[in-house]
Write a structure and sequence with these properties.
Shape: elongated
Order of helices and strands: HHHH
Strand content: under 5%
Number of strands: 0
Radius of gyration: 32 Å
């Protein structure tokens, strides 16, 4: 394997042979983004939001199947979309179960504004029995 000095000398020799006294740097290879599977990109784009988690999972599975058949790029994007989508869905289910548990145990106070409970302005009661007029009256 040639060292860095050898490569530099080769480039300089080629520049001298071509009649140019300027040494040009190697040109970076351009990345072809058209080879990515479109549904893989859609999967990660929709899975990053809570609303699009289900769409991210669906498009991620379809993208993986298409990538397997066609050999396109984007497998990592599709898998990331699947993981994020499933995490959002699992988190939503866990939060729903937790809220249901709190509701059953009586830890979440609910009710309408007219039952003497917590209103929009907080628990504003001003008489002895706790069912006062509140800020807006009865």
């Amino acid at each position: 394997m040639a060292s860095k000095d050898d490569k530099t000398q080769i480039v300089e020799t080629m520049a001298e042979e071509s009649g140019s006294n300027q040494v040009s740097a190697p040109v970076a290879e351009k990345h072809d983004f058209t080879r990515y599977n479109t549904l893989a990109i859609v999967s990660i784009a929709t899975a990053i939001s809570w609303v699009g988690a289900v769409a991210g999972v669906i498009t991620g599975h379809i993208a993986l199947a298409q990538i397997k058949r066609s050999g396109e790029k984007g497998r990592a994007l599709a898998i990331t979309g699947l993981v994020l989508g499933y995490l959002y869905i699992a988190g939503s289910i866990a939060m729903g179960a937790l809220m249901l548990l709190f509701r059953i145990r009586g830890l979440v106070v609910g009710g309408s504004y007219g039952d003497g409970g917590w209103g929009m302005m907080g628990n504003f009661r001003n008489d002895q029995d706790g069912n006062g007029w509140g800020m807006m009256g009865r």
